[in-house]
Amino acid sequence: MEIRDTSPADAAEMAELLNAIIAIGGTTAHQEPKTPDQVRQGYIDGPGVRTSVLACEGGRVIGWQSIEHWEGGFHIGSFVRPGIQARGVGAAMFARTLAQARAAGIPEIIASIRADNVPGLAFYAKMGFRDFAQDPDFALKDGRVVGRVHRKLSLV
């Protein structure tokens, strides 16, 4: 597995991965498919993006992770190809993300996770994130209330 920084050329494959996760449902608050340009702006080189790394295996993107300055904080998003979660991809990306966040002077990283996303909650807990807020009324567009847990990791 190779962990490297993203580039604009990765946007289409990153969008494909994210859209596969959205289509399955259950592990992301995103509900509408994203275009490569939306992924580029939000996760690669848009004005709010502070870090952006991806994992490749056999020349294929198997995961990506980025930190964006949004709503006054530094928020992380982590996405791993369906079927290979919990095999170390997220942790490998996080090692690079964490080094980049520290180098950028980011004081803390926030993760907002659907309360029903058990693998996501486990991942961020394993990385050292701690709960600081709950949004039990967070609902999807179809009206389903899934809740949301907000966690943060202090880097200072």
From TrEMBL:
Example GO molecular function: acyltransferase activity, transferring groups other than amino-acyl groups
Keyword Oxidoreductase set for record: no
Keywords: Acyltransferase, Transferase
PROSITE patterns xref list: GNAT
Pfam families (UniProt xref): Acetyltransf_1
Sequence ranges assigned to domain N-acetyltransferase in this UniProt record: 1-156
Entries under PANTHER family matching the protein: AMINOALKYLPHOSPHONATE N-ACETYLTRANSFERASE-RELATED-RELATED (PTHR43877)
Identification of the protein by name: GNAT family N-acetyltransferase
Source organism (scientific name): Stagnihabitans tardus
